Amino acid sequence: RAGLRPLSTDLSVAKLGESDVHVRMLAAPINPADINMIQGTYAILSELPAVGGNEGVGQVVEVGSRVTSVKPGDWVVPADTGLGTWRTEAVFPEETLLQVPSDIPLLCAATLSVNPCTAYRMLADFETLRPGDSVIQNGANSGVGQAVIQIAKASGIRTINVVRDRPDLPKLVERLMSLGADHVITEEMLRKPDMKDLFKSIPKPRLALNCVGGKSTTEMLRHLQPKGTVVTYGGMAKQPVMVPVSAFIFKDVKLRGFWMTQWKKDQMHSKLSLCELVRKGQLTAPACTEVPLEDYRTALEASIKPFTSSKQILVL
Amino acid sequence: RAGLRPLSTDLSVAKLGESDVHVRMLAAPINPADINMIQGTYAILSELPAVGGNEGVGQVVEVGSRVTSVKPGDWVVPADTGLGTWRTEAVFPEETLLQVPSDIPLLCAATLSVNPCTAYRMLADFETLRPGDSVIQNGANSGVGQAVIQIAKASGIRTINVVRDRPDLPKLVERLMSLGADHVITEEMLRKPDMKDLFKSIPKPRLALNCVGGKSTTEMLRHLQPKGTVVTYGGMAKQPVMVPVSAFIFKDVKLRGFWMTQWKKDQMHSKLSLCELVRKGQLTAPACTEVPLEDYRTALEASIKPFTSSKQILVL
After folding, report:
1. Model confidence over A285-295: pLDDT tens digits?
2. Whether the Cβ atoms of residue B283 and residue B116 lie closer than 8 Å to each other
3. 3-state class of B146 per DSSP?
4. Bridge-partner residues for A209, per DSSP?
5. Which end of chain B is more exposed for a tag (fewer CB within 10 A), N or C?
6. Closest Cα to residue A123, out of A92, A155, A95, A91?
7. E strands in chain A
8. What is its EC number (chains A, B) (predicted)?
């Protein structure tokens, strides 16, 4: 927040209470929302001083006498936002942790509870999609975007993936195609009349996933089926979502939002079926750059650079 | 549409077929959507030449031998958009008409099937409102707006009514209050911090009804309860609806649209319960100016003037 600079510091590890779990952190990503929390622009702000990071995986070292849900050696992830995962070890109350299988790759476990859960819920909760149906999304190379591609692929749902034009576009297209993307197009292509040709081979989407805002959303909306839904889960362009009145009245489109943090407060089921996809090789971690904790400044800087297609992940 | 001018002309009345109904029109309003159809900006355009008008009430003169749903003397209204009600008489297929009770005032019957039905459905279909709950709407002096005020009042739902500032504001406020409005405020007041005081005596709305678009919608949205719904049914400002990304993500607001024409294609129930409200004196026709058919040009011109609070209704 204004006037504050993140720093690396030594904190003492709290004494283990009877309902506490001593965790050694293994890996923790830097997500856009973590940066927004530091900038003070997020809807939830931790009391300062605070430890950054809302996601990650740790291994249980020791448990208090009344702890029943986890045992030493288990892998755990945060049950909720605000745990502060960018640290090497800590003592957490049992209820702030959820056990995850330890037979999935470390980077998958570290990045499972925010981006893939968001992707999974957005694909499941707003429209009933069947194999052969299509989904359109912008910011398709984001962590969520990559998970959408893979989860949709595993369900037989086709994806139209919108990305910004960039110098190494063919490389990005190739990477997203290798994850299972059906179409990868730029924002510019999205505006062109040739889009009609694309819809000769794929049905118009009933669901659009938006993490950009501004014109990008309006353009995606134009290709949506009547009665389709746009779900907004981010606003990278820092511009409001703009919707022509006619889309509401004559096309009956629905605009909704999704926030994983709020969803988690209600329930927490999707992670287990995601672990199934990981085990089957249908869901991998997003492209990650592993960074040792001491190089956290480099990682934070890299995480806010434009066109970053790789998630910075602190290895602890 | 471009290059076309509406004109008054004599049409021959078609021969009565066995499934037809000969109707003498009694009254037909000029609604904003009728003007849009003439301008060519509506989603449904009649084949030209066409008779204008989509709403109105007529009296059955004669019926074909196979007609069962209506008999001579009955009052009828169009079942669907596009009937062409701005005429003195016509022969219509039976299925294009719906019978309405003839014991309600003529102007109510003539204006029942578009505006009050829109108001009724929007109050019923998007949020479950209970007595004591509140609704906010802009364009509150429109035909729909006036019906919203009265139907909400009859259901114990409180209304916050937004209108544009104008020379005769106190008169408009008084008229809307007399219909049952709880609060009438201008767009300017909506933006001011004093709105907080208003919400000391009335709960924040869970439903916002929008027929304006642009900034007006964004301002209403700010006062909506979390998880509330904005329903767009018009766009008088000719500007898109703009929604901050944070409203979708952190406030979980839903944006929807409503179009009576589409709804009618699916089902048609609400008119009967509206007749009940009319009989009980809880729903009156909007402020109307009765105009003889030969003065249709004056009526059309009056209907597109700014700040027109009176619906032009052709008396046939």
Report:
1. 777 888 888 88
2. yes
3. helix
4. A137, A231
5. N
6. A155
7. 20-29, 57-63, 75-78, 89-93, 97-100, 134-137, 158-163, 183-186, 207-210, 213-214, 229-232, 239-243, 254-257, 288-292, 311-315
8. 1.3.1.104
Does the pLDDT of residue A165 top 70, yes or no?
A: yes
Q: Tokens 């195609």 belong to which residue?
A: A177
Identify the residue with better confidence: A74 or A275: A74
Question: Do the Cβ atoms of B247 and A235 come within 8 Å?
Answer: no
pLDDT: is A313 or B75 the higher one? B75
Mean pLDDT to the nearest integer, B220-247: 95
pLDDT per position as a tens digit, A298-312: 888 888 777 666 888
Confirm or reject contact between A246 and chain B (CB < 8 A): yes
Which residue segments constitute the domains of chain B, with CATH numbers given? Answer: 20-111+285-315 (3.90.180.10), 115-261 (3.40.50.720)
User: Which member of A252, A255, A259 has the closest CB to residue B243?
Assistant: A255
Question: Which residue of A234, A252, A259 is in closest CB contact with B262?
Answer: A252
Among B42, B120, B233, B296, the one annotated catalytic: B42
pLDDT band, very low/low/confident/very high, at A269 (cuts 50, 70, 90): low
Tokens of B44: 């449904």
CB contact residues (below 8 A), chain B span 162-221, against chain A: 213, 218
Q: What gap in Å lies between CA A203 and CA A207, rounded to an integer?
A: 11
pLDDT digits (tens, 9 = 90+) for A34-53: 888 888 888 888 888 889 99
Given a contact cutoff of 8 angstroms between Cβ atoms, the answer to whether A13 and A91 are in contact is: yes
* Residue A214 region by backbone torsions, left for phi larger than 0, else alpha for psi between -120 and 50, else beta: left
Name which residue leads in pLDDT, A250 or A43. A250
Instruction: Check residue B184 and give its pLDDT.
Output: 97
Tally helices (H) and strands (E) across chain B: 12, 15
| A313 exposure class (CB count in 10 Å sphere: 0-12, 13-18, 19+) | buried
- In angstroms, what is the C-alpha Rg of chain B? 20
Q: Which residues, 6 or more positions from B41, have their beta carbon under 8 angstroms from its beta carbon?
A: none
pLDDT at A219 over 90: yes
Which of A248, A250, A251, A258 has the most B C-beta neighbours within 10 Å, making it the best mutation to test the interface with B?
A248
For residue A42, indicate whether it is catalytic: yes
Buried b (16+ CB within 10 A) or exposed e, B273-304: ebbebbeeeebbbbbbeebeeeebeebbebbe
pLDDT at A8: 76
Task: Please state, rounded to an integer, the average pLDDT across all residues of chain A.
Answer: 89
What's the residue count for chain B?
316
pLDDT at A288: 83
Asked if B227 and B127 count as a contact pair (C-beta separation under 8 A), the reply is no
Nearest to A259 by CA among A218, A211, A219: A211
Q: SS3 for A21?
A: strand
Among B234, B252, B258, the residue with its CB nearest the CB of A257 is: B252
- Alpha-carbon distance of A2 to A229, in angstroms, equals 37
* A245 contacts B240? CB cut-off 8 A: yes
Which tokens belong to B22? 């000969």
When scoring A249, A256, A263, A265 by the number of chain B Cβ atoms within 10 A, the one with the most, hence best to mutate, is A249
